[in-house]
Please model this.
Amino acid sequence: MLMAHPAVLKDLVEQYETLWALHAEDGTAEARQRMNDVAYTLCVSTGTRDIDAALIAARHRLPGARVEDDSLLTA
Model:
């Protein structure tokens, strides 16, 4: 399976987290659609079927990820 470049995954995770923090799911139709689009792209990019699994998989591919506990090392 092809995997997205870590820079692409980082950007997608940041976009999704920003939309989630802004409560895009409760916002305008455009905001909800953008959130759904980013979630879908994350799922396709990580070979997963739901956003929670996609976020975990994407984070594991980012530089500095700790394999054993699903967190990122701080710089």
Notes: Residues 29-46 form the longest helix (18 residues).
